[in-house]
Amino acid sequence: MSSLLCNMKKNFKIILFKGLIGLVIGIIFFIIYCLIRFKLDIYISRDGLFLSGFFIFVIGLISYVSNEGFFDSISYGFLTIPSLINTRKERKFKDLYEYRLSKEKIRKENKFSPLGYILSSLIFLLIALLLFIATL
Can you give the pLDDT at residue 8? Predict the structure, then answer.
């Protein structure tokens, strides 16, 4: 029971840290968007908040898909390029299956959750939705 509680605290800290990173990235993206548009009104704010939320949501989804192993075959292909150019160089992994097994072992040790990114993106999207409703 105590190890489960310790894991929950550790995961909560990771989710909170990623959520704060998502908020900072969203605020920076929002400021850049407003500076590009050269003015700040409710319509620009709404659009900037929506784009920030969408951008963070995409970051969370891509990191989740990457952690699930979607890009493993691509990364294995890039990893084998040096051994194709120099035939004397030995490969780290015999084949893609061995590479995936090593990655799965690492993924089991490092629990990943995109929840921080998703929650921070929902904050931006919810504020953008409220501004959209307010401007109707």
Answer: 55
